[in-house]
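Subject: sequence -> structure tokens, single chain

Hey, anyone have a minute? Need the predicted structure for the following. Not urgent.
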Amino acid sequence: MKEAVRDVKELCQLLQLPPEFAAQAAGATGQFPLFVPRPFLARMRRGDASDPLLRQVLPLEAETIAVPEYTADPVGDVPASLQPGLLQKYYGRVLMVTTGACAVHCRYCFRQHFPYAVAPRSLTDWLGAIEQIESDASIHEVILSGGDPLTLVDHLLAQLVHRLEKIPHLRRIRLHTRLPIVIPQRVTAELLDWLTGTRLTPVVVVHINHPAEIDTVVSAALAKLNAAGIPLLNQAVLLRGVNDNVDVLAELSERLIDLHVLPYYLHQLDRVAGAAHFEVPVERGCQIVAELQRRLPGYAVPRYVQEIIGRDHKVELI
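Reply:
Had a minute. Here:
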């Protein structure tokens, strides 16, 4: 993460893109800076401004244009807060915003405006949230999210999980992370030790939008998690100019199944301010998923869903 590219001009130089791309992007990095780890950058095509991995991280002038219905909190995180950093939207599970740090800044991120400053930063800070979880026996699962929880060091995560496993009604711990994809070297022996060393059943949900994100090192990282017996799921976001194509999503699903990762969700874009240029019409999304159903076995077709504020579950769009 220390070696990540943070400057648009440097990014354009490394990818052999015209200087005007850097000039166009300058205005979009004020509120949400560029952050691209080099292992992820290495998978991008040089000289190709339409590369699907580049499009996910390259700031564009379009981000600065206000669009009605695109807001700072498109999924209702703030009203769902039980405690600072502790959210509950669905029955039986809660989400802990463990950190504001990510190993890559995706330009469509629905939490890019989240008030991370108020979230707990240590086990002591989390005590109020942990007591809230202890008081509600209907909660069976805790989701560690962020930011990205795997930007935290392993001993801190292990301490948190060790404290959570003392709550008798908890059964599962789920990690939502992009680290095994953007910096696959993050899947270490220490990580596997605490994930498999708890009585709580671990589930890891990764985020891959395009098959080009999966190289041999990513495959090896996912294989380590799989060999440890950890269920692996993938969430993708339907993004214009990235994966709004049947062939791309079919190949992604096939690659995931080959790697023992279940294609779990294909999300309709959350309407976060600055991301309107990524939206694919729902009608087009339904056409794509219908074609995936025709081409692929049922287990390889992700559920096409949308998060709607106030609903007690994600809404399936097909």
